[in-house]
Amino acid sequence: MASESFLFWLVALLTMAGALMTVTLTNPIFCALSLAVTMVGVSALFVTLDAYFLAGVQLIVYAGAVMVLFVMVLMLFDLKHEVKAFTRGIFSGALKIATVGLTAGLVSGAIFATMRVSPPTGEPHLAPANDLTAALGQLLYSQYVFGFEALGVLLLVVAVGAVALARSKGGTHAGS
Amino acid sequence: MQGLESFFEVGLNHYLILSTLLFACGLAGVLLRRNVIVIMMSIELMLNGVNLSFVAFSKYMAMLEGQIMVFFVMTIAAAEAAVGLALAVAIFKRFREVNIRYFEQLKG
Questions:
Q1: 3-class DSSP state for residue A130?
Q2: Inter-helix orientation angle B36-60/A67-77, to 10°
Q3: Is residue A41 a contact partner of residue B45, using CB atoms and an 8 Å limit?
Q4: Structural domains of chain A sorted by starting position, each given as residue range(s) with its CATH number in brackets
Q5: Is the CB of A96 less than 8 angstroms away from the CB of B83?
Q6: Could you read off the pLDDT of A82-107 as tens digits, one per residue?
Q7: Contacts of residue A65 in chain B, CB cutoff 8 Å?
Q8: Dihedrals phi, psi of B7, to nearest 5 degrees
Q9: Which of B32, B76, B102, B105 is the best substitution to test chain A (most A C-beta atoms within 10 A)?
Q10: Tens of pLDDT along chain A (176 residues)?
Q11: Count of C-beta atoms within a 10 Å radius of residue B3
Q12: Number of helices (H), then strands (E), in chain B
């Protein structure tokens, strides 16, 4: 149990450090690299939660495909250090940070209050980890097969739409 | 001593708080940054935080539906990233910069 909690704290700290650096660093390439660290950390957290299939998908889709997309676009733009990376204005900035703090505080307070009223009972009793992926596949291809097919159609539409958007000549700005 | 033990004994609480913090980080990024690409990275952070809470509930409630939901969210996030980056490319071709204020110029 001790090694389990040690692993959790290590990965949680790594993930939070990555998230904070994504938000605070001014060079977009460093932001992308910290985001990749965060994605790998979240994938490791999925492993500690026995969601092995989702951990693999997280690595392939987020840490692989989406990050490559981000980094490729950044390279294409050749962005240097941003001069004005953050919003200006003391008042509006303070308001935004207060909003973030309030959101985090409210949700954490709700979590703690709920846990005090009705703590989770006993050990979780999911199927053994080997059968979990099989059960996930069974569920995905039986009960949620419509959503799965709809996602396929959505991905096709998005692929066509992204290409059309990226090579458009700029709509009303075409002539200028 | 009881409090210290519950602090180190990892449970549903820990995962939910971590997911809240990830979401808050992403929210701060969306509100405070001006670069469109960094804003989209922050949106990915928020989605990851929500995914983490889905998987944590899926384990501690012994229900697989949460993992199905995470699967769908991941797919839609990848699609959203593709469309958003295509929009960023369109903006960059016109203005040579990807500051968020140029997005008010987007018209048909």
A1: helix
A2: 170
A3: no
A4: 1-86 (1.20.120.1200)
A5: no
A6: 666 677 778 888 888 999 999 999 99
A7: 78
A8: -70, -40
A9: B32
A10: 578 888 999 999 999 999 999 999 888 889 999 999 999 999 999 999 888 999 999 999 988 889 999 998 888 887 766 666 677 778 888 888 999 999 999 999 998 888 887 766 655 655 566 678 888 889 999 999 999 999 999 999 999 988 888 777 655 455 44
A11: 6
A12: 4, 0
Reduced DSSP (H G I as helix, E B as strand, rest coil) percent helix, strand, coil of chain B, to 5: 85, 5, 15
Sorted by where each begins, the domain ranges of chain B are 2-105
Q: Select B2-105's CATH number: 1.10.287.3510, 3.55.10.10, 1.10.10.10, 1.20.1250.20.
A: 1.10.287.3510
Beta carbons of B42 and A22 less than 8 angstroms apart: yes
Cβ-defined contact of B37 to A28 (cutoff 8 Å): yes
Mapped onto helix, strand or coil, the DSSP state of residue B83 is helix
Query: For residue B101, which phi and psi values (nearest 5 degrees)?
Result: -70, -20
Q: Terminal CA-to-CA distance of chain B, rounded, Å?
A: 63
How far from each other are the two terminal CA atoms of chain A, in whole angstroms?
A: 65
Report d(CA B85, CA A164) in Å as an integer.
12
To 10 degrees, the CA torsion angle through B45, A44, A49, A142?
70
Q: How many other C-beta atoms can be found within 10 angstroms of the C-beta atom of residue B22?
A: 28
